[in-house]
Each structure stands twice: as structure tokens, then as C-alpha cells.
Amino acid sequence: xxxxxxxxxxxxxxxxxxWCPGCGHGILMRxxxxxxxxxxxDPDKVVIVSGIGCSSRAAGYMNYNTLHTTHGRAIAFATGxxxxxxxxxxxxxxxxxxxxxxxxxxxxxxxxxxxxxTVVVFNNNIYGMTGGQYxxxxxxxxxxxxxxxxxxxxxxxxxxxxxxxGATYTARGTxxxxxxxxxxxxxxxxxxxxxxxxxxxxxxxxxxxxxxxGSTIDMYNWQKDNCIDVKxxxxxxxxxxxxxxxxxxxxxxDKPEYTDMYMxxxxxxGGNK
Amino acid sequence: xTKRFQLLQGNEACVEGALAAGMKFYAGYPITPSTEIAERSxxxxxxxxxxxxxxxxxxxxxxxxxxxxxxxxKSMTATSGPGFSLKQENIGYASIAEIPIVIVDVxxxxxxxxxxxxxxxxxxxxxxxxxxxxxxxxxxxPSSVQECYNETVRAFNLAEEFRVPVIFLMDEIIGHxxxxxxxxxxxxxxxxxxxxxxxxxxxxxxxxxxxxxEFAAFGEGEHYNITGLFHDDGGFPTNxxxxxxxxxxxxxxxxxxxxDAIEKxxxxxxxxxxxxxxxxxGTARAASGALEKAKEIEGFPKxxxxxxxxxxxxxxxxxxKISEKCKHIIMAEHNDGQMLMEVQRAVKGNVPVSFxxxxxxxxxxxxxxxxxxxxxxxxxK
Amino acid sequence: xxxxxxxxxxxxxxxGICAAFCPKNALEIVKSKVHLKDDALCIKCGLCELxxxxxxIYVEKEEE
Lengths: 273, 381, 64
Fold this sequence. Notes:
CATH topology of chain A: Rossmann fold
Structural class of chain A: alpha/beta
Distance between the termini of chain A: 51 Å
Order of helices and strands of chain B: EHEHEHEHEEHEHEHEEHHEEHEEHEHEH
Oligomer: heterotrimer
CATH architecture of the largest domain in chain B: 3-Layer(aba) Sandwich
Shape of chain B: globular
Shape of chain A: globular
CATH class of the largest domain in chain B: Alpha Beta
Radius of gyration of chain B: 21 Å
Structural class of chain B: alpha/beta
Number of strands of chain B: 16
Largest sheet of chain A: 8 strands, mixed
Strand content of chain B: 15-25%
Radius of gyration of chain A: 18 Å
CATH superfamily of the largest domain in chain B: Thiamin diphosphate (ThDP)-binding fold, Pyr/PP domains
Largest interface: A-B, 43 and 44 residues
Strand content of chain A: 15-25%
Helix content of chain B: 25-40%
Number of helices of chain A: 13
Distance between the termini of chain B: 60 Å
Number of domains of chain A: 1
């Protein structure tokens, strides 16, 4: 028997999921479920939209209205769902490649519109589903099957990208820091506007093995030891922060939301009668 | 109050037809010669409580329209050649996930950016085969402004009834043509809406002899899964070959087994015609002109016209019947011979099929078609 | 109200995260499955539940 939370939020007959042993995605998916459960949203009004890749398999396991779309396009589909019916809570589960490579254009434009979507990026720093190719978040000079001599690309800072594109809530958490991650997702869902929460995942199978990151446990320990809360980081020097990753709420802003503004246009045109 | 008779462009009539059919959502990206469809939708949709959004690219246009359809709104997107290419992956998604949508392609000339924006019918094969894998699709080609109105209504109806993407295959000639158009109100039209959906948990299951599952909108209480992977009756991904076959077969059968209800064509002077011109869309205007002129030319054979309105699935049975009565078929289309291949396939060598086409951006004229008739006539002598 | 540690063994993939981060070292992986060494060691803090990627271990609250 699984726990009550899992029974209430997941399609239990679809579990266990397809992710590898030690994969952080399972933890992050639980965090999403816990956040929805904490807020007490009506499951009939929750929509989970995903793209393609390891992360995007999450949609099939979660017991809500779930839309598993095409590679990179989850945010564009979600925009249609939300504008069509603003009463729905629309959460996008996507990956680093799905959201910032093939879907990068949709990401920045949804940020720009400030449409009330909550986008949770399960970032495993690699293309896992296709076997370990480098992604836009694979760190500089690390390896993938398509970067056998080291990745000369520089990686995205996803919350920073989203913030500068106009997202009004941005945050970063990790699979290791599950409680904080849950809270960040919860805040993102509650925020009325475009929210982006990056969840640093762990990919022992491809990213870890390719880059000699040690065991699964070593990789979680790395998150534990190298992620610094944004509040604590504020009092640290640049040298102290060298090689560290900052987690927590990065930015919150108050700006009119897209579907609200569109409803006003409808009102102005008399279409609400 | 909307005036019942208006002078409209084909593109504008398409939007008015869509509204009459119940369109409540449009998402797209500007591209000539389809842009007026987006512009008029932007004005008209909020007036009827609908939503318009200009997306960041063509792919996002169809994606958002599909998302809105899943959320319960009748949705449309419009584009032209380059954009039609970009939308292909999500047309396949709509096919396998069975999401109703109308995709307008106002065809322009050439591959890539081609000849912006001269007329063409070069996307005929792409409308059927543009997205990968075996999949169902319906395509309709209007040849007047009035048809842009009426047939857009039918496109929405077919999309809803069969849960398929319907390609509204216009061309620049018809898109930018201005003619009188009767804006027939919805109450006087047959409109197919989504029926009630019983919450069953088996959202893709169909009854015996039925091919189309009921459609539940998100938010109505059926927590189901939609995916572009082959899926079981519950909507969940499967690698089971029997289940994949069962779904794939049903998707194709829902078109082939209902082909009579989907097919539509117009026949002119076909009964005793010796030569039959096959044409569709804008080219039919030139063919009609040729038909009239041919009557006045002494010694010319009797000429008829067969114009498929539903161009996919191709009306092969009717084409076969025609080939059993006439002596010669002339295919006239604005490309290098695309529907020509369907005609040749359908008539199985019964009669010779000659071809009138153009790929230089100029239009096919009545004289071009008359010349082809003359050739047939001279050869017969 | 008492609490109980529950292991849903069928879903355990043996990754060992729960055991590695158990503050009381109460868990072990035996033949790729998690086991509770001794119930007396377990303080029912639920950290294993939060970090189990496979939902194979959790703390259940029992009404008395």
C-alpha cells in the first residue's frame, strides 16, 4: 500500500514509474503532488502539461487532467489551456532540454506575457531519454555522449533567464532539499502570474556516470554540500560562493496577469454578455 | 447586428464561417497570404466572448489552439506554406490524440519562402502526408468566397464529429478574392457540438461499430491522460503491439469507414461529357471559364467538370465512375501534378489523363485549359 | 496518535537514498530492497519518505 498522499495524487496503477534507480525526478514529482495537496486544489481543475523527455513522463502518473504533448511545446499547449479556461490551475512539468533548448522560445514568451502558469523544470543537466547528450544546462566542459571532449557551450541559469524575460516568480530548489522544493512550488502555484521553479534533479545513469560524479548518494551529497540558500548567500563573499549553486526564491514581482487582461478586452468588446 | 450579405475576402469569410460554427479560440502567427484570418479573428473573437492570441511562432500557434481545444473550445489556426511545414508535427499529435482543430493553409508558391506570395496549390500532398507516420486527416478546398464561409463550418463540424485535424486548404486566389457572401446565421446551419461525456475512466474506448470516442474537456471531471504515444483505451502509453494496432487501425478506419459522410464534390455537365476536367480550389475558377468557352467552340468535344470539395480523402469511387463514362480526363491544378497522382490511381488506366499545371507563380487561365482540351480533340481526329 | 514506518517493497528500486540520509542510520539495503534494521532506531521523522524517488517508504500516522 502506498502512502495517502500518493494515493490521493497519483495514478497508483501506473506506478512504479519508468525512471532509473536514484533518479531525482521521482522526488520532484512528489514535491509537485505535495504542493497541490497542501494548497487543497480541486483535482478536477488541475491540469498538468508536459513535453517530451524523462521529466515529461510525470504527467502520465499524476491523477489530474494530464496532457503529454510534443517535444518543447508544453508551455505553448499550456498557454492555450489557460487562456481557454482561466479557472484551471495549469502546471507545466518539463525538462532542461524540453524547456530551454527546443522549447526555449515558448518559455521566454510565456514569461513575457506573464500568463498564470507554473512551470517546474526538472533539470538533470543532460538528455536522459536519448542516452546522455549534452543539454543547455550541462555545465561548461562537462561531458555528454555528444560532447566527448567536454562541452564548450556555456549553460543557462534558468531562473535568471525567466526573470529577465518577464516571469514574475522565479525560484530554484533541488531534489535533495525536498521540503524547500515543495514550498517553492506551492508559492509558485499560489502566485498569480508566470512562475518558474527550477528543480535540480540527479541523473546517476547518464550525467553522473559520464562525468564521474561517483555514486547516486555522492550526487545527492553534492547537492547537500554545494547548494546555498539565497538568504545565506546574500552574506557571503564571491570567493565563498565560487562553485556553489544558489537555491530559494530568486524573484517575485507584481504585474497584471495575461488572462485577466484579456478578459478585460472581452468585457470592453461586449463579448461577456 | 451583422449584415447578412457582405462583400468579403475569402480569408474574411473563413473567419465568419468559423464564428458561425462556434469557433471560440484562435492562435497563430502572421504569414502572407493568410494574415487577414488572424487579423479578423483578433477583432471578432473577443466580441463573441472568444479568445485570440498571437503566439511566438507557427508551432506555438497550433500548440496553443490544441491546448484550448482540450480545454473545451472550438479552435482554429491559420498559416501558409512555410508555417504549414512548421505545424506538421502537431498535426500528427492532433491525429493520434484525437483533438479537434481546424488548420487553414492559404497556399502560396514554391518550396521554402518560394515566391511570396504568388498563388499555388503545391501543398495538396503535404496536407495528407506532411506529418510523419500513418494518420487520419481530412482536407477541404473551397473555390469561392461563399464556400470559404460554408465549408469552414463543415470543417469545424467534421473536426468535432471525427475528432481529427481538418485542413482547410485554401489558396492565395481564393484567400484574397472578394465576392459577395451570405453570412448564414448559426441557427440556420447544422452545427456539430461536443456531446456530453460520461465519466468512465476509459476515455478512448469506443462501442462496437463506432470509431470515435466521446470527448471530455479538461475541467469536467474526467481525470484522463492525453498523449502522442500510442495509448490504450484509458489514454495511457502502451508498447503492446496489439493495442497499438487496435488504436492505429481505428484512427484510420474512422475516416475510411465514414468516407461517404466526409466526401463532397461538385459535378458540372458531367453526364454526357467526353472530356472531364478535374480541378479544385482557385483553379476551378479557370476551369469554369474554360467550360463556358468550350461550349462556343465549334467541333469541340462535350466538356464536364469534376471538382472535389473534400480533397482528402480523395473521392476515388466517384472518380472511377466518371472514368467509366468519359473518354479523357484533364487534371488542372496549380502545381506540378499532385492530385494528378490520385486521379491516375483512382481511374486505374480506364482513360488517358492529361495535365495542366503551373509552378511559376502565374495563374492557370481558361485558355491554358482550353489548349489542353484542344490537344485532346486534335489527337482524337 | 502513533506513527509507523511503512515499506512498500514492490516499488523499491534499491537506490539507497533513504538509508544514506536517515539521521538515525535505521535503514539498510539488502538485496536491492530497503529494510528497517530495528524499529527502535527509527524516530519516524519522514525524511526517507520525502527523498524516496519511488514512493516505497513512508511514515503513516495511526489514529489511536
